[in-house]
Design brief:
The structure is a homodimer. The model of chain A has no long low-confidence stretch (mean pLDDT about 95). In chain A, strand 10, helix 7 and strand 11 form a beta-alpha-beta unit. Chain A has 8 helices and 14 strands. In chain A, helix 4 runs antiparallel to helix 5. Chain A has 2 domains: about 170 residues, Rossmann fold; about 150 residues, 2-Layer Sandwich (Hypothetical Protein Tm841, Chain: A,domain 3), CATH 3.30.1180.20. The termini of chain A are far apart. Chain A has about 325 residues and is of the alpha/beta class. Chain A is globular. In chain A, the strands form 3 sheets. A 6-stranded mixed sheet of chain A has the order 1-2-4-3-5-6, with helices on both faces. A 6-stranded mixed sheet of chain A has the order 9-8-7-12-10-11. In chain A, strands 13-14 form a two-stranded antiparallel ribbon. At the A-B interface, helix 1, helix 6, helix 7, strand 11 and strand 14 of A face helix 1, helix 6, helix 7, strand 11 and strand 14 of B.
Amino acid sequence: MRMLINSADTVVADALRGMAAAHPELEVDADKRVVVRRDAREGGRVGLVSGGGSGHEPLHAGFVGLGMLSAACPGEVFTSPVPDQMLRAAKAVDSGQGVLFVVKNYTGDVLNFEMAAELAEDDGVRIEQVLVNDDVAVTDSLYTAGRRGTGATLFVEKIAGAAAEEGAPLERVAALARRVNESSRSFGVALSACTTPAKGSPTFDLPDGELELGIGIHGEPGRERRPMMPAREIAETAVAAVMEEVAKVGPAEDPVLVLVNGMGATPLLELYGFHAEVAAALAARGVQVARSLVGNYVTSLDMAGCSVTVCRADEELVRLWDAPVRTAALRWGC
Amino acid sequence: MRMLINSADTVVADALRGMAAAHPELEVDADKRVVVRRDAREGGRVGLVSGGGSGHEPLHAGFVGLGMLSAACPGEVFTSPVPDQMLRAAKAVDSGQGVLFVVKNYTGDVLNFEMAAELAEDDGVRIEQVLVNDDVAVTDSLYTAGRRGTGATLFVEKIAGAAAEEGAPLERVAALARRVNESSRSFGVALSACTTPAKGSPTFDLPDGELELGIGIHGEPGRERRPMMPAREIAETAVAAVMEEVAKVGPAEDPVLVLVNGMGATPLLELYGFHAEVAAALAARGVQVARSLVGNYVTSLDMAGCSVTVCRADEELVRLWDAPVRTAALRWGC
C-alpha cells in the first residue's frame, strides 16, 4: 500500500486538519466535517453547499470561497456525507436568501441531501437542489441510478457560484445551475484503477497495456476495455461520445467550455498533450472553444487517466465562468 | 506502459501544443520550445528566464506570467534544454534591463545556461544567474555535483518575479533570488518510482511496503530505504532534515514559507493530511509558518510521494510572496 497517511481511519480528518493549517480563510470543522467560507453570511447572498465522498480533491472543499461554494461537506472516502453535515452547512451559510444544494447523482448523496433539505426547511432555511448527472458513459452503475455526476460539477459550482456572488436570487441561481448541468456532458478513461485507503488494493484489475473507457470517479469499472490507444484516439473517442449529446444543446454557433481533467496520477505533461488532441477533435467538428481548463480537479484518488467535460455556453455562461473566483484550487480575476 | 501520450518522441511538443490551446495569454513556440509571457517586454522590467528537463510540470512553463517568470525553456523529459532555447528566451524578454537565469543545479542545466549567458552577453543582453540547490538529501547524484535544485525553485521564481514586477533592477532581483535559495531547504520522499516515456518502465524498483527517503525529481534513488512509515513519521523525518539547515538562516523569530509538494501521483487528500503533520512538526520546534502552499508544483512525472521545502522569510520575503501572481499554475492577488 503506497499511501502517505497515518491510518485508513483518519484520512479525512487528517486532510481537514491540513486544510485548516493551509487555508486560514476557511472555517474548517474537522470533527463535524464542514468547510465554510468565513464570509459566507456577509453580503446577503444565496448560499451554495455541495459535498460528497472524499477522494475527489480538490472537489469540493477546494472550491469553497468567493464566487464558488459557500460550504462543502466531505464524507468518508467514496462515501456520502450524512444529512447532519449538509444541515449544519446550510445553517452556517444562510443569510435568509436560501441555499442551493449541488448534488452529484449517486444514490447515497441524493438520499442524504434530500433528508438534509427537509430538515433545513423545517428550520426555516429555503432550499433548492440541482442534481448533476453529466457522465455519458454508463447509466446505472454500482453507485447510481441514471447518469453519474462527474466533471460538470465544477462548471455548475463555478457558474452558479458567480451568479450567487452577484446577488442573484435563489430561483435564478438554481435555474442557472440546472441549465449548466443540462448543457454539459463528460466521458472518462482509466489507465489504472485507484486504491482506497480502507481496501488497500486496486478497485479493479487493469492489466498493463489496456485501458478502460467510460469510467466513473469511484474506481468502478467502465463500459469497455481496449488495448492501449494513442492519446489522439482516446481524445477522439471521448469527444465523439460527449458531443453526441452536447450537439443537441443550444445553437451550434455557441462556443463551449472544456475541462480536461486528470483523475489523479496522470502527469500534467500528459494532460496538456491530451488537451491538444481534445482541442483538435473539437475543431474538426467546427466547435469553438471559449475557455479551457486543464488539471486535476475532479479526481479519483491515485487513478491514472482523465476525463473530458464539455459545456455548451452562451454569452451569459461564459461571462459567469470568467467572473472572479478565489478558492484553494481555482482562482482568477481577483 | 500506462501513459496518455501519442508517442514517447512527441510528448513535449504535444504538451506545448496543449498549453498553447489552453493559455492564449502565453506565446508558446512548440518547435523552438520556448514559452513567453506575451507582455514580457512591456513596462521595462527585468526578465526572468528558467527552464530544465520536462516532467516536472507545472514547473517551469506553468509559472510564466505576471509576477513570476517571463519565459520558460522546456527540455526533453529529464533532459536539459539547449543553449539556443535560453538565448531565444532571453532576447524575447529583455527590455534593456537585463535578464536573470534561474538554474536548478543539474550538470546539464548549469553548462547550457552558462553557454547561453555568454551568447546573450555577446548579443548585448545583460545576464545574471542564480543557482538553486536546496535539496538536503544528497550531495553529488547521478545528475548533480553538489546539492540538487528542487522545490525552492518555486520560492525563487515567485519572489524574484515579484521584485522584477515591481521594477527592481537586475542586481537586486538576482540578490533576492540568491537570498531565497540560501534560506530554503527541501527533502523528498518516494512511495513509488516514476516511469519516463522513453524508458517505459519504473526508473528504480521500490517494493510495495517500502519507501525511499531523500529522493530527487528525476526518478533517481534516494539516500535510504525504509519500511513504510506513517505520514506523521515521514513529516518528522523531512522537517528534521530540512530545519537542521534552515535553523542556521536568519533570526529564529522570523517565520517560514512552507511548500508541501506532491511528486505527481499522490492524491491531494493525502497531501493535505501530510501537511497537517508538517505543520505540527514545525510548531513543535517553535517555528512560525507565515504561509503554506500544498499541491503538485515540482513533480516527477507519475511518482507517488512528496517533498517539503521550508524557506526562512523576513517581512520583505513574505511581502513579495504575497504580491500578485497570475500564471497557469499559481495565481493570487490579481
